């Protein structure tokens, strides 16, 4: 590497010339105190150390009472430009990518990696030899620093990379074996890592792709197949997987990152291993993982074995392995965000080198400068506010022998809605407590039980299907069982309203609390008979309706219990 402004410096470790600036969070070049910043001396060469010798630095303190004389300036030859900015030697350009790694490495940059048996994300800037794929309109054309964004992390089961011949499916074309959708909030206060099971049954839409010879090809879609077939098969690229995620969840991925088996091995070694915990001893014959009960540190091949193990955890299925992967990711993030890593330039360089050799990204973020922007945005998210969860699923009812799963329609739609509406899962519980206290103070018991609320729901300008989704949420999550879908309202309206008869005020207050309706949304009037002929309130969902379970007053709705965890939690696999 060329030391900027100092010519070649083979005898100087590049990492030793960069220090963390606490004001910016990035590494900056610092020359030694004995070399003034304004003077630009040529490289000082020293004898190469003997093999096995340890290089040390020594400083001689000044004698008491003596002042250390300032360093002498080098005598410039006649006609030479004066020292300073104009006198600096030009920086050679061939090492620009590595310099970018150094400049941004100290800022808790970004590493988002998935392997055939594991998903894995971490904040560490990536630069260098990263391959790119043009996904066309399946993703965003550029990275927007002032908006929420979604990055799809894909790990394949293709047997590529040195030493990986024995892993995965020998004949695999590279399916989407592990997939995580990472949503980063607009205000960068939180993020959600949503795992997508490879055995999820979904539809794969038609997919425009660019072939190796540059030709365009539309790969026909498939209906009712495993999600993992969205990549590799029939020439489907990562853009096809992005389109499939949009089809299955309604969430638009903006960018993608894809990695091979080597990523987990090299990155875990770069941080001197990752701490894991198992509740019982593990001796897995297939993955070759051997661990005692309790805490251990794994890296390299052992870390990959930990993430690929299935038979030793839970019911030996993929869903239980996903939980173990998430626990591993949380531990990795804690290790990578520790001061021992962030203040160690050599370790950061090692991490960046490992990551650049493992990743493929979409062309919109495939440049060093753009990756730096991604890194600086991601480093703003606190680990305690990064939530791991899996798409809620149930066994496929079409199968006798349960091998695949389908989306749980009672829980998943709200998860998708909250992500699409940039709602933080980490703040839901705290918000619920505040709302409960406020409701208790305001109503003081003058509200009906949820089971006594009778309401008919109409769509008056909300997204198609909103009335049914809100009905499912009220019945399955809030216990408002006496509710029904009454179809579309006669006309669209800007605001959601609730009309009730005077003797239904207690019911109206209860539903207002559940939905976050303001006083202006409540209209005293007449009730309508339901299917049983009983007087029923009328709820019309207006254009301000944000989704099932999302409160109209802007606060978070009650999140369904889907077993989520956060990156700061320490858990043991079982």
Q: Number of DSSP strands?
A: 28
Structure annotation, total helices: 12
Dominant shape: globular
Helix proportion of residues, in percent? 10-25%
Biggest sheet: strands side by side, in what order?
Answer: 5-18-13-6-7-8-19-28
N- and C-termini, Cα separation:
47 Å
Strand content: 15-25%
Main sheet record: 8 strands, mixed
Oligomer: single chain
Mean pLDDT score: 74
Low-confidence stretches: 1-18, 31-127, 439-445
> How many whole angstroms does the radius of gyration measure?
29 Å
Structural classification: alpha+beta
Explain the overall architecture.
By secondary structure, the protein is α+β, with helices and mostly antiparallel strands. It contains twelve helices and 28 strands. Strands 5-18-13-6-7-8-19-28 form an eight-stranded mixed β-sheet, with helices on both faces. Strands 22, 23, 24, 25, 26 and 27 form a six-stranded mixed β-sheet that branches. α3 (262-270) runs antiparallel to α7. The protein is globular.
Task: List descriptors.
23% helix, globular, six-stranded mixed β-sheet, eight-stranded mixed β-sheet, alpha+beta, 574 residues
List the helices and strands and how they pair.
Blueprint: E1 18-21, E2 26-29, H1 96-105, E3 111-115, E4 118-122, E5 131-133, E6 149-156, E7 176-184, E8 191-196, E9 201-204, E10 207-210, E11 216-219, E12 222-226, H2 238-249, E13 255-259, H3 262-270, E14 274-278, E15 282-283, E16 290-291, E17 294-298, H4 301-308, H5 318-336, H6 339-342, H7 345-356, E18 359-362, H8 368-378, E19 386-390, E20 393-395, E21 405-407, H9 412-420, H10 428-443, E22 454-459, H11 466-476, E23 482-488, E24 497-500, H12 505-515, E25 522-524, E26 528-529, E27 535-541, E28 565-566
Parallel strand pairs: 5-18, 6-13, 8-19, 22-23, 22-27, 24-25
Antiparallel strand pairs: 1-2, 3-4, 6-7, 7-8, 9-12, 10-11, 13-18, 14-17, 15-16, 19-28, 20-21, 24-27, 26-27
Helix pairs in contact: 3-7
């Amino acid at each position: 590497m060329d030391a900027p402004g100092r010519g070649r410096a083979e005898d100087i470790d590049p990492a030793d010339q960069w220090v963390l600036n606490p004001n910016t969070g990035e590494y900056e070049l610092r020359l030694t105190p004995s070399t003034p910043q304004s003077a630009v001396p040529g490289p000082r060469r020293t004898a190469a150390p003997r093999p096995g010798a340890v290089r040390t630095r020594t400083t001689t303190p000044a004698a008491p009472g003596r002042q250390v004389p300032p360093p002498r300036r080098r005598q410039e030859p006649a006609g030479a430009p004066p020292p300073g900015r104009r006198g600096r030697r030009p920086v050679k350009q061939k090492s620009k990518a590595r310099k970018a790694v150094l400049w941004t490495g100290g800022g808790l940059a970004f590493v988002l990696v998935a392997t055939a048996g594991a998903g894995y994300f971490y904040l560490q800037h990536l630069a260098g030899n990263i391959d790119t794929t043009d996904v066309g309109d399946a993703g965003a054309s550029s990275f927007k620093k002032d908006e929420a964004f979604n990055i799809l992390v894909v790990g394949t089961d293709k047997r590529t990379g040195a030493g990986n011949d024995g892993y995965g499916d020998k004949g695999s074309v590279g399916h989407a074996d592990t997939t995580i959708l990472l949503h980063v909030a607009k205000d960068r206060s939180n993020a959600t890592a949503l795992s997508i099971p490879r055995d999820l049954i979904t539809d794969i839409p038609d997919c425009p792709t660019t072939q190796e010879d540059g030709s365009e090809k539309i790969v026909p879609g498939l209906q009712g197949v495993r999600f993992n077939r969205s990549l590799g098969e029939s020439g489907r690229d990562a853009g096809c997987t992005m389109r499939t995620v949009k089809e299955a969840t309604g969430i638009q991925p903006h960018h993608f990152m894809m990695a091979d088996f080597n990523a987990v091995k090299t990155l875990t070694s770069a941080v001197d291993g990752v701490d894991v915990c198992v509740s019982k001893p593990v001796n897995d014959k297939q993955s070759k993982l051997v661990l005692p009960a309790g805490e251990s540190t794994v890296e390299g091949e052992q870390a990959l074995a930990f993430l690929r193990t299935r038979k030793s955890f839970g019911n030996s299925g993929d869903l239980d392995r996903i939980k173990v992967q998430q626990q591993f990711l949380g531990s990795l993030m804690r290790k990578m965000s520790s001061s021992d890593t962030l203040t160690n330039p050599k370790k950061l360089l090692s991490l960046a080198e490992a990551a650049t050799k493992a990743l493929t990204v979409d062309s919109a973020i495939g440049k060093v400068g753009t990756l730096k922007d991604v890194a600086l945005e991601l480093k703003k998210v606190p680990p305690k506010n990064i939530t791991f969860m899996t798409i809620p699923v149930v066994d496929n009812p079409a199968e006798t022998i349960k091998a695949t799963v389908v989306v749980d329609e009672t829980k998943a739609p709200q998860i998708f809605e909250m992500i699409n509406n940039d709602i933080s899962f980490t703040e839901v519980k705290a918000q619920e407590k505040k709302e409960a206290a406020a409701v208790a103070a305001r109503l003081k018991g003058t509200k009906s039980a949820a089971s006594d609320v009778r309401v008919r729901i109409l769509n008056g300008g909300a997204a198609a299907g909103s009335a049914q989704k809100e009905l499912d949420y009220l019945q399955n999550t809030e216990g408002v069982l006496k509710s029904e879908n009454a179809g579309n309202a006669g006309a669209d309206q800007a605001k959601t309203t609730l009309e009730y008869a005077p003797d239904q005020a207690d019911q109206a207050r209860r539903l207002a609390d559940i939905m976050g309706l303001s006083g202006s949304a409540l209209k005293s009037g007449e009730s309508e008979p339901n299917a049983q002929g009983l007087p029923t309130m009328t709820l019309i969902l207006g254009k301000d309706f944000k989704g099932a379970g999302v409160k109209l007053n802007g606060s978070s709705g009650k999140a369904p219990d889907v077993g989520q965890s956060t990156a700061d939690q320490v858990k043991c696999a079982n």
